[in-house]
Queue: 2 jobs
Job 1
Amino acid sequence: MNKFSVLLFGIFTAFFASWGVFVGYSSIVLGRLQPLPDEETRGYFPPSLSGLAISGQKSYAANGCLYCHSQQVRPPSLSTDVKKGLGPRSTVARDFLRSQPAFPGTMRTGPDLANVGLRQLDPNWHHRHLYDPRSVTDWSIMPSFRYLYILRRIEGHSSEEAVQGLKGPHAPPPGFEVIPTSEAKALVAYLVSLKKNYPLPEASISTGK
Amino acid sequence: MTALTDIAPPANARAAIDASARMPVLIFFVSAVFWLLIGSLLGLICAWKMVFPTLLGSQAWMTFGRLRPAHLNVLAYGWASLAGIGIGIWLMARLCRMCLPQPGLLSIAAVFWNLGLIAGILGIMAGESRSIAWLELPSYASTLIFVAFVLIGIWTILMFRSRRPGAAYVSEWYIFAAFLWFPWIYATANILLIWQPAPGPAQPAINWWFAQNLISLWFVPMGLASAYYMIPKVLGRPLYSNSLAMLGFWSLAIVSVWSGAQHLIGGPIPTWMVSLSAAAGIMTCIPIIAVAANFHMTMSGHFDTLRWSPTLRFTVFGAIAYSLTGLQGILMAIPSVNALTHFTDFTTGHAHLGLYGFFSMVMFGGMYFIVPRLIGGEWPSASMIRWHFGLAVSGIALMFGALTLGGLLQGLALYDPDASFKTSVEFATPFRWISGASGFLILAANITFATLFLRMLFWPLRGQASATLLAPPEETEETAP
């Protein structure tokens, strides 16, 4: 064997061994995970996403939410995530069954969102927060997603859809109201759907304090 | 594998080789420098948006979540990859001792690559990204880049097969391997995550495998190839040890492909995968130490050359940053450290030390050596080179220091069960100011380099007796009578 074939052989052997393990194993074994039936409600764990939430997931990707927000609770053996109330249990691979793509995230510049739907169920709160984060938390460094909202002149009655509770400097000009676009509604539907409180055999919910 | 001095082509052959490489390599360099400016400007905006979230308003295409991936992709696939390919092509030509076959193929590849990237960055700004780390370019863009790369890959094999007889130097090994690895990792990740996405549970492991290998099988080999060539070349001495170089190469190929998943400790992947990666991550000290020892022993007794040679000053700084990044990576593979630093600015500092402190500096060093040989003239200003180095080093040092310290404090607050989330933001904020300020230094360094590069393209110094040096060289022992 000449040096060239040794080099080529080495380059490919080293590479495909790791390819087989990380890509092959993940695609075959993790890729075949199935949702588990829930006997009580005849639904599934993790529950499927509504159509609106699926399009909200696309908006989550398009606007790069995951560059500041993770969606994974690490186990208590390694972290204080559960203690800090990020969720009732750690996140496992099966939790990402409904995620396309999966957003485990790498940064916590903003809070973890794995269970944001458990902490904050009110869609109006999310709309207010997305429209102007500093109207909810004055120290927030989240960008405003005003471009997902329409500032509209109130004609007759104010719309039922209008974002409520924008006060002071955050309020729309008098006679105007803030209406969420369909993308904003989808994004909020997705955020509210983020709950990992269902039991899975590989991740039990610890009730002991 | 052999010593550089054995395979140096005679002077007239060198000139012919350089002339054949001129067009494609310059196209790669010019586009790389263009993307460097765009990328560092985007990075600067992102850094300040973390302090002033309302900066530059709230248009969709200017939101942080789109500018940040645009910044990363511009620098990774625009600046770093194109500069690395340009240097790789030139090194292959010199080391294979032959004029470039089919230079047109490479120029076409560069055009495809740039078109793909322009389309992709506009796509990200328009909201077409799937937000998968390092793979944000939409599928039409990554397809164009992949086509460009297949052309480059075909060229590489042609080149390596038809080279003049003689053993290969270690730089050739790295470039050859990187140019063969890249299409596999890029195609695998794009197919499984973007084009025909795998189910969600499989994605995090594949994504980390890709991100890690993009670094250790694409950027690291290209950077090391340049350093392995430039250090002995400028010194005019042989590399300290060829067996150490082989150890470095094979241990990188064999060990580092297994690391990466340790960054997902506690994440949604099997624990055995994490343990495997953590072990491999710790073993990456073998290639790191092998490379560092080889460079150090080659430089030993000749550190005064750093005073006058721009190429060496940048390359050696980059090589030191490579060791530091690698050792920091090993630290970050330790579970208790990872629990603190993961999810914080600490990781951003690590990424910048690797991609700017190591890779970009080595690329600058290589370009300072190569461009005069392509143009047939010398760099028009030594003081601009000094400014470039000073600004770049102070910028990256300040940025790395600020993000590392700020990230640690942020991590402590995120870890402490009694601290509120607000505390983590408050801890990180002053350091984000410093990091934003360092962004100005880095942008200034890059503008200085781009200006000098432009002057070099159009108004190089001709007829100068020696290369443009930073200081008059002192006579070393070998050359002294």
Job 2
Amino acid sequence: MLAPVTYNLALTTILRKRVLPVDGEVIPKLNQRVAATDVIAEASYSHSHHLIDVARILGIKPNVAEKLVSLHVGEEVSAGTVVATGFGLFSKPIKVEHSGRVVATGGGQVLLDISQKDFQLKAGISGEIIEIIPKRGVVIQEVGGLIQGVWGNGKIARGRLHVLAQKPNEILAASQLDISLRSLVLLAGSCQDTDSLKAAADITARGLILSSIHPMLLDFARKMPYPIIVTDIIGQQAMNASAYKILSTNNQRENVSLNAGAYNRYTGARPEIVIPLPHADIPPVPRDVDLFAPGQAVRLCRAPHAGAKGTLVNLPSGLKTLPNGLRVMAAEVKLDNGERITVPLVNLEVLG
Amino acid sequence: MASVIESDSVLALDIGSATTRAMLFDVVEGRYRFVAIGQASSSAHAPFNDVAHGVEGAIQKLQEITGRIFLDSDRRLIASVQADGTGIESVSATISAGATLKVVVAGLLADVSLESAENLAESTYAQIVEKISLNDPRKAEEQIDSILKANPDLIIIAGGTDNGASQSLQKIIEIIGLTTYLMPSEKRPVIIFAGNKEMRNEVRELLEPLSSGLYTTSNIRPSVEREDLAHARKELARAVVSIRKKQIPGVDEIDMWSGGHMLPSAFAEGRIIKLLSKLYGAGKAVLSVNLGASATTLNAGFSARLFSKNYPQFGMGASLTELLKYTTAEDIARWLTIDISPQRISNYIYTKALYPNSIPATKDDLQIEQALGREALRIALHEAQEKLPTDVPVLNKDLLPLFEIILAGGSIISNAPTLGQSLLILLDALQPVGISTLILDQNNLLPALGAAAELNSILPVQALETGAFLNLATVIAPICSARYGTNILKASLRRADGSVTVVELKQGGLEVLPLKIGEVADLNLQPFHRANIGHGAGRKVSMKVGGSAIGIVLDGRGRPLVLTSDDIRRRELNKKWLWTLGG
């Protein structure tokens, strides 16, 4: 059976394709190094337009109005530019109210693109540009630690990693966040109150890495100016041991990037923490797809062992009956604490 | 590939968002029968991003079960039956996998053509992200920017009675045209035009080059009073499959296997319900409910008239957190037999949404999952009831219409560990009234049968008659305003061997008269206190009744079912009701 894979890797090669939603301009050059917060591509992708209906303003037929329009598609215009002038001695010229670019004309109407800035795409991770995708984006390669999360608030940042949570099961308190932690990426345990999120904003934290977050805080967390990545669950739970170990052993590491993009199960985009590390050789790129097989390190995603890590020891054939009566395809897993249990296959993810 | 009519066996593929199923139908003793099913996890999502992995897995399971071979050593379909018996002649395919489609609806008047466009959109896996109509007070450029921001997969345009005025519709079409013109060509949506037929050529000329596919169909609101979605639903089904082909690798190939007849699962299920309601004839309404991972789907057939609703917001998978916009964890907890905190229920919902393919592994979690299923189905029905046609048979307009047949599917219902659990989920959520036969679609065959009906109308009818579904119970649910504990119905069951069982149903009670599958008996129902079982207040009913897995269930718990606010008593009652139905 195909297995979903979550990556918690101490040292690996990370390849990420970053592309614009539409054609645009790619900024960096091949082999250039970029930071996670660098803009790597820009596009004109406007959602802000102004329509000037000359025919309606002058009260004339569209085909007549069309002949009066003096602007052309592609023309850049500034506020005050005359679009058309009506007939008669006292007819006032119709002027453009907003600066912009003419994107369509016809039927006595003129449509202007009045967006102030272009769509900008950030790198999301630090690394070297190993491929340019013309007009669309780049492929970035980095070597270092990789931890994938389950929830992110959509922001991107980088900074020095500071381990605030001394154990995987700590709960973050606002009182822990003082000014000495400003501009740091904080490994901060579980967050169960808004005060902690506010306090992190007040000290201008570069980002929060959380094991879990209370579901009622999600909307508030989305509004925070810094990235927040949740590694394990929406609710309250300790951080999985492998993620905590990788993060805590990289305390004070510089240029740790947090790309807190939303988890999208169709595209595979996940919130990610990347820790750039010095290396002699390029380690292998992890596999994208795997089949369940004995010997794999696995994590359990549901009760009664949610978050627990273990080793898949057997894949019995046929269906197994769970204590609640459901009959399912299952695996035998030896947990890290030595306990041997039977788990539905769909409740397992392989740790890459 | 040959038509089903010429061949015997049919391989039906159903690609769900969580599970992919491969089902084999074959002719046994001169009639089509459902033979076996193979299931695998779906692979439409990352990291697989190709439905083929899930389809192969499901077919391989089917091969293991049946001993027949459909795939060659390179895992390609053997597209005709070979001399050694390997291969398959006919394949049907349905799909519900894929992200919810973002749809913009446009019409002239909000409560006329725009409403019909919304009804059409809600019959598939769609979320309406923007509405444009003449009632819209926004400026044209604001409408354009809103559509651009919404980034729709599909735009449905309705409006104008046939041969009626076209100028107002022209304005709407121009806005849509201008908007799609501003989109990069690869981002342009599919467009369905279902308005004034006089405008079709003009629409084609303007919008065909500006869309990624234009479908024109008959007017869904040919007059102000009349809505007709039948033809538009077919075009919508084609449009949805065309969008999925672009979005999800592998769909194109599976569609080719099916001879280009792939259908959205919800549409295929609607087709079979329409067919059944036609077969059962006037006065016998048919309802199907499917509590799927991607959506809750409802299809109601009234004398070959189909009413179809699809609610992605009530899907039991990745969108489960949406349910909390319509209900509370406290209300979900009302369905439990044990004390579980609202916080734990809320955490459960978020975990399930993060891991939509996962299943409950503990008794408590199973209870929460089933409670969520009840609540999602109950709310979906409530939403749908507001839009049901006004002329359908009802005892009370606030209750479920009278449905003679109710078919239910979706893993929470059909994979429940006991049939009593399956039945109680349905009774609590649907709250049927009058006399209904509840049938369990244990293998989620309805979409497959609907797709097969495209090519062979005999197959679904024969498969239904030959035990493809499980007859769960005959439910008699009287409407009565008598006091709690009062006798409201006496049921007398005379079996073929002459034995008679008599049960008196009290207001608030739940009783079972066992009658095994294959048995037929005479059932006499004598209501008291003007109780109505669908034939008029206090009217007696005598009927032949067939056996079922649980038997005849008398549900006197009241309609609507009002659960006591006393937590301990309510949990005890939930427990007692489940025990009555066999645990």
